């Protein structure tokens, strides 16, 4: 499957979501660095792309495209371990579940007329909300 999105004399751009994995992208870089005629590689894991600069006078572009596709297909066919969530995201997931649970309990207790327990679960909700906001403080304050 061709992942080449742009091919000009001297330059090829490859894009695929799987290239956002830095380890995979590094292995593909290693594989492509050994190809004859490739001058430089510019990986961009955030965009999931890789730009190859090559000498168009020394290399036939169709042959290079076929070799690049084969190398990338071989790497992406290898199984990889799913990415583990960071501790920050695990904490945030717990905070969001805590907010949902405490909100439901707080509303149920308010409907049942249990004011003191309603206040306790409301406080738990606010604590979980504080954790959630602390995790996302950089994106909130932009």
TrEMBL record:
Entries under Pfam families matching the protein: HMA_2
Domain of life per record: Bacteria
UniProt keywords, alphabetically: Membrane, Transmembrane, Transmembrane helix
Spans through the membrane: 94-111, 117-135
Name of the protein in question: Uncharacterized protein
Source organism (scientific name): Azotobacter beijerinckii
């Amino acid at each position: 499957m061709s992942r080449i999105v742009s091919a000009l004399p001297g330059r090829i751009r490859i894009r695929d979501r799987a290239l956002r994995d830095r380890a995979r992208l590094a292995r593909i870089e290693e594989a492509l660095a050994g190809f004859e005629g490739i001058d430089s590689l510019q990986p961009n894991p955030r965009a999931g792309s890789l730009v190859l600069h090559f000498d168009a006078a020394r290399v036939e572009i169709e042959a290079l495209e076929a070799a690049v596709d084969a190398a990338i297909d071989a790497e992406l066919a290898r199984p990889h371990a799913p990415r583990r969530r960071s501790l920050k995201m695990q904490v945030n997931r717990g905070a969001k579940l805590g907010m949902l649970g405490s909100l439901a309990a707080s509303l149920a207790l308010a409907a049942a007329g249990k004011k003191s327990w309603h206040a306790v679960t409301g406080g738990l909700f606010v604590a979980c909300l504080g954790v959630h906001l602390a995790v996302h403080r950089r994106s909130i304050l932009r």
